[in-house]
């Protein structure tokens, strides 16, 4: 597997002596994580890998995905030598085992939907998880659902890959029609169900990018749960103090050269090279 920079050049290493934090996602979702990394790790470079060749992950075969992600991460860690890794993609995070991440021999944080925590802050005990189909159907989510046996818990799961596409469109400056998103959601939920939700878990790092559109639809929601901040904080706690005084450099690498031109604009806007 090869990694390409924004110019479409194949890259085997980067020549900096600063410590590096690696972010991995299928698309732009990890940008919602990178903004927190820049606040926590003032002396570290940020290396962002987007698997644009295999985007989107949300509806791909799980076994095929897992094999690809493990291979990609092993190569990325070997090439870029990070001091820590955040798997920003919720779908990838639910697929990867702890035994695999331990083999990488560095702090590795998975971004996972905090379902039980969401119920703790829900006054109506009515929580909605918006994620990709693979995250919704994951063993991780199913195991937590098994714990929600009390009738007082109302837990709805909405798995829509189309929302990932809406987020990617918005990140490239394409205007979204909120009515289109609402119509999509109402295919899976009734208007009454939408109105009764009081906590929404953004179970995909793409979704903070369309939070304003979702707020317009879910007007009665009191809390929007985004696990990105807690994931970065966990990585910060796991890594010793970084002594580098250099400013942050941000590097973007993709997995398919042919898609570089129409894939990089959101990253350039966020300061990635």
From TrEMBL:
Keywords for the protein's UniProt record, in alphabetical order: Cell shape, Cell wall biogenesis/degradation, Isomerase, Peptidoglycan synthesis
InterPro entries: Asp/Glu/hydantoin_racemase (IPR015942), Asp/Glu_race (IPR001920), Asp/Glu_racemase_AS_1 (IPR018187), Asp/Glu_racemase_AS_2 (IPR033134), Glu_race (IPR004391)
Short name of any one Pfam family annotated for the protein: Asp_Glu_race
Domain of life: Bacteria
Reactions mediated catalytically: L-glutamate = D-glutamate
GO molecular function, one term: glutamate racemase activity
EC number of this enzyme: 5.1.1.3
GO biological-process terms attached to the record: cell wall organization; peptidoglycan biosynthetic process; regulation of cell shape
Name of the protein described by the UniProt record: Glutamate racemase
Enzyme class: isomerase
